[in-house]
Amino acid sequence: MFVRFGLSSPAESGGLILHDCLNDWEVPTGMGRRREPRKEIQAPVRIFGTNSSGQVFSEKAVTVNVSQQGAELSGVQVGLNLGEIIGLSYGKNRVYFRVKWVGEPGTPKAGHVGLLNSSPEKPLWDFPLPPPTPDEHQPQVVEQRKYPRFKCHNSVELHTQDGKSFWATISDLSLGGCYVEMAIPLPPGTKLKVGIWIGETKCWADCEVAYSTAGLGTGVMFKRISEPDLERIRQFLETFTPFAKKPTHQQ
User: Fold this and answer.
1) Which class is 143-251 in CATH?
2) What is the pLDDT of residues 177-208, one digit of tens each?
3) What CATH number has the domain spanning 39-117?
4) How far is Cα 90 from Cα 47, in angstroms, rounded to an integer?
5) Each residue's pLDDT tens digit, 54-89
6) Nearest to 68 by CA among 151, 133, 132
7) Residue ranges covered by each domain of the chain
């Protein structure tokens, strides 16, 4: 027997899709401002990936400041595109970042780049960082999440209807869908079959891409999944703590 999930409509604002799964999203009705303290420190790092010309690169750089979620680097020679995912290694640790800004040539910021950590929960730095400053603004939230999300790092296979196959990692999972980390995400509406590894077992589901974030990943909605596979996912998620709870809205 299979479980089918109903359709919902994505919530958009100014061209920005604000939800993270059609069966699992929230729409903020106000924007808070979260200030994250930065630590001024010069630490040697190495960045690697693909440059703006599509060529593989690896070069040394130096941090200017670091926070829990990002970093500013100096001494960057390679040309980078905004939104590009690049790797950053410090010591023996390696984490992937998204390029948020690039300093203009001929300005004091030439050779500088601003990076956003795509996996802030992974260890990278060996020095303490100041904790985030609490967000004093409390935006109203219309909560439409049917299933709580859980952070995880499971391998996943994606097979599209036109025969393409991808192997990736999911960064969060719920009973209604998952978020797949992909540097080149699939377009919304793409139909695909997804196999999520739970231990030694692969759980299969017919899915649809709910939304995509350039350079980061794809939100996938479960459309049809067998009851045994859904139960395996349910038992797996029971071993985790869900994301912070917010006001609920019954669907």
Assistant:
1) mainly beta
2) 999 998 788 888 999 999 999 988 999 999 99
3) 2.40.10.220
4) 9
5) 788 999 999 999 988 899 999 999 999 888 889 999
6) 132
7) 39-117, 143-251
